[in-house]
Amino acid sequence: MRLVHSQALTKRTSHYALTVSLIIVTLLSSNRLAVAAISSNETDQQAQHRTPQQQQQHSCGLYLAPSTIPGAGLGMFNGRSSKSLWEPIGPADLVIPVTDYSEHNSVQSHNDDEDEQAYIMNYYGWNIPSFAHLQHDANVDDTVAFCPGPGAALNCLMGLVNTVALDEEVSFKTYTNQHSSTPPHAGSFTPFSNRQLVSKVNNIEPGAELFDDYGEAYFRVKERPAYHSIPVTSDYSDADSLLEEYESLRKQVCGDGLCHEPMRAADPITTVSSPTSSLHSSLYQLMNSLKSTWPSPVLNALPENPETVDQLTAQGTAMRDYHRSIRSIAWLEEHGDCMDKIRIDESGIPNAGNGAFATTFIAKGDIVGPAPALHIPRDFMQMYPVDFDENEQEYNVNAKTNDGPTHQQLLLNYCFGHDRSSLLLCPYGAATQAINHDAIAPNAEVVWNYKLMQRPEWLELPLPEWTHHMSAGLVLSYVATRDIQADEEVTIDYGRDWQKAWDEHVGSFEPPVDRADYLDALALNEQELELQVSPFWYSDKYVQLKCRGMYLRWNTGTVIDHGDIDDDEEEETPFSYTTETDKKTFSCRPLHRYASKNTSDTLYVVQVYARYGEDGQCFESDWEVVFGMPRDALVFEDRMYSRDHAQPWSFRHSIGIPDEIMPEAWLDLDASVKI
Fold first, then answer.
1. d(CA 324, CA 284)
2. How far are the Cα atoms of 2, 176, 356, 472, 478 from residue 494, in angstroms, in the given order?
3. Dihedral (C-alpha) 232, 234, 240, 241: value to the nearest 10 degrees?
4. Region 122-138: what's the mean pLDDT?
5. pTM score of the predicted model
6. For the chain, first and last CA: distance in Å?
């Protein structure tokens, strides 16, 4: 694959080099020179010439402010101090699964053509394969992880990526295992948390915008044609090669002095001898002008300013926008809001899961945290019955049901809504998503943040006129209604409708009988149970037993008949971790258990198998039988749709948008309609 890519790169670079040569020959033959204007896009003069007063440390460590990327809306910026490699940045994030969202919405709209569906979540959600615990939540290809903190707030500039989230460190905590029976709050909040953002580089300067890596595929999918000309990592490599080729050709044609001849400015008295008024500048500006007629991410990776060509030839075109990406702390104070005044920890409110706690004193009237909001149709949250296909061994959304939706996405509990509107606002920020409800004595409230709002006109427009936009344009703020002390939990009032729905849920809740003895895979693995032995052992609707791929010796393992096992003849074979594929797990069952000859460990003989459907029947294929497997090789995994938050009895209700800030133009539902 790399060979193919290298060949493609060589062909493209040669093509660009030929174009550069033609440009130079054309200009020399015409003997016409043009004075080119210096682009202001290359650097941010304010960032380059910060005064000592502007560079002084500030109490805020993380800001939300207008991005340095044109048209990118808001971005996150480093605050008071530099960040070193692997240093944590801001509070850890929650992770909210949005399960099989296009499948459920296809049922609702009777539209099976996923290419025609446009969801704002496609732009703000993350694919789940990198989240170990989420991979068993639902179908991997159709479920996204919404991370309503840095995961949604960070922009991406591939040449300057300076952060990374530790997805593999995301923790999974379920509260059902702590109770003798399923409690009413089970499944009402996400069990996934602790997604920590860290520095990916040796030094992130104060005031630098923070960038995450979206992956090259994000900018190349056909649903986002406007992104196709944005440079990605491979484009910067091509641009470096092109710039080197340009410099080589320029030197061949110009020699040592021709490209830097003095030029007369518009004023006949003034002589201009800078490189900007040279043949070099004219040649380079002409090459850059091709961008308007030949959209190319490689050309867009080239520097705008010819004066920086020599510098970026040495440093790499990925550094083109480095200076522009840094703001002064004074600028961020004026144009942005602080994001790190709260952190996430276990709530002091019983059965509330995580909560948000002040990291510093917050005075009455001060912003606790800003929160841009995704606008999502309420119908997006609907979920339909899910059937388990015994033949295919997978769950499918039942598209033939006439009963309507039976549940709602967990994300609904983290969004704001109004009983007379079909719109939901799902905010993201830094720890604001963990702010809990207090109907009696809340210490904060939600208001509009006009300072950061990108599209304030939406507040006056009917929903059909603006909800088709696929970017966040509205911003909320959580504001302290009284002084909040450091380490005090921050709360707001979710509203009367939410409180009424919760009281009714608790009053009518009956623990499901089929989960009376339910333990999820996490609890079972922590117990390190001695496994039963049977060819058909452990068939459960909630969990399944798997073998870790790192312990399986594909194509080299010994296949044996479990009926002829002789303990004295078994040979223990050391296993080793080999490839990335070994991180996978495979269906298996323990056939035999015996004591190790060399240690006190218990070892297992396991059968690895696969199930498949054909002609409406279910078949099983044995792949391999392996012996000498340690207990660590066998692990329980939750089945899809088995966890508490996937059960139709788990509580769902949006947080109430206060009537005093609810735009009248958004009230598109009859008051008598129950939602």
1. 21
2. 53, 24, 15, 22, 13
3. -150
4. 77
5. 0.81
6. 51
Question: How far apart are the C-alpha atoms of 151 and 433, rounded to whole Å?
Answer: 12
Sign (positive or negative) of CA dihedral 82, 152, 145, 506: positive
The CA distance from 547 to 631, in Å, is 10
The answer to whether residues 353 and 433 touch, using CB atoms and an 8 Å cutoff, is: no
Half-sphere exposure of 401 (CA within 13 A, CB side): 17
The 10 Å Cβ neighbour count of residue 391 is: 14
Tokens of residue 378, six digits: 């309420």
Measured in degrees and rounded to the nearest 5, phi and psi for residue 479 equal -120, 140
Q: Which residues contact 422 (CB under 8 A, 6 or more apart)?
A: 377, 378, 379, 463, 668, 669
β-pairing verdict for 354-358 and 126-127: unpaired
Q: Tokens representing 306? A: 């010819």
The structure tokens listed for 316 are: 């790499």
Q: Are 627 and 607 contacting, i.e. CB atoms less than 8 angstroms apart?
A: no
β-pair type (93-98, 83-84): unpaired
Longest dimension (CA), the chain: 103
DSSP string, 436-449: EE-SSS-SEEEEE-
**How far apart (Å, rounded) are the C-alpha atoms in residues 239 and 514?**
61
The 10s digit of each residue's pLDDT in 318-343 is 998 999 999 999 999 999 999 999 99
Q: How far apart are CA 355 and CA 378, in angstroms?
A: 25
- Do 661 and 447 form a contact (C-beta atoms < 8 A)? yes
